[in-house]
Specification:
6 strands, alpha/beta, about 230 residues, globular, Rossmann fold
Length: about 230
């Protein structure tokens, strides 16, 4: 699918205007996949102000930080919603443990990507199977792997239109919105975690470090995707 015309159409629109277009056209067939990070919380606030029935889902890998569950709860309470949760398949997690042990993902990129597939990618595929539009909180400055993304893309693997409404926002834009709109956010952000994933694979970073350097810190930067957002 050629998304050139869509990108041209939306290039001067605000994230809210982009989201409103897809909500009106696709309804619950458009959904945000949220990890409850700062960007996803911004989009959650925007979506639910546009439509209280907007479709938002998350992937519970079974290895998340306690603080992530706390912000999930705070989000549900503030907006009066229940974010949909997709879990990995029990038999696949059991097989993963038998093959790798508890933390085998540290041993090789192959092991880590297998773990990511079982805990994140397969559940995501199930979630996206019912959708036409996949909304994400990706920003171009988050990583070298995201610098060439477009606001509107076509995901050939999952056969959905991928919408990145905050793509051109800066980190300052994100936090200004959170503060001005009193959006719940993960307290780990206050502890040096700009990017938050599974607990064993995420750590705090130092001032001046790349924002994704705390993810899979034992790997080279060009490998630092779990497979959810690779082209």
């Amino acid at each position: 699918m050629d998304t050139t015309n869509l990108n041209e159409r939306f290039k001067n629109l605000s994230p809210q205007e982009v989201l409103e277009y897809f909500l009106k056209k696709y309804g619950t067939k458009a959904a945000l996949s949220s990890s409850f990070g700062a960007e996803d919380q911004v989009i959650t606030d925007m979506l639910l102000k546009l439509d209280k029935k907007a479709n938002i889902f998350t992937l519970d890998t079974g290895r998340l930080h306690p603080q992530t569950y706390s912000v999930m709860d705070a989000t549900n309470l503030k907006y009066g919603v229940k974010v949909n949760v997709f879990f990995p398949k029990t038999d696949e997690v059991q097989k993963l443990y038998q093959e790798q042990g508890v933390n085998g993902f540290y041993e090789s990129i192959e092991n880590r990507k297998t773990c990511c597939f079982v805990r994140k990618i397969e559940p995501l595929q199930r979630a996206l199977g019912e959708l036409s539009i996949w909304i994400t909180g990706l920003r171009a400055t988050q990583s070298v792997t995201r610098e060439e993304l477009k606001v509107i893309e076509f995901d050939k693997v999952n056969k959905v239109i991928k919408v990145n409404p905050l793509l051109m926002w800066s980190e300052e834009d994100v936090w200004s919105y959170i503060k001005e709109n009193k959006v719940p956010y993960n307290s780990l952000h206050d502890e040096g975690f700009p990017s938050i994933g599974c607990a064993p694979c995420t750590r705090a970073i130092k001032d001046g470090d790349d924002v994704r350097s705390g993810r899979w810190w034992w790997e080279n930067p060009e490998h630092k995707e779990c497979g959810l957002h690779t082209k």
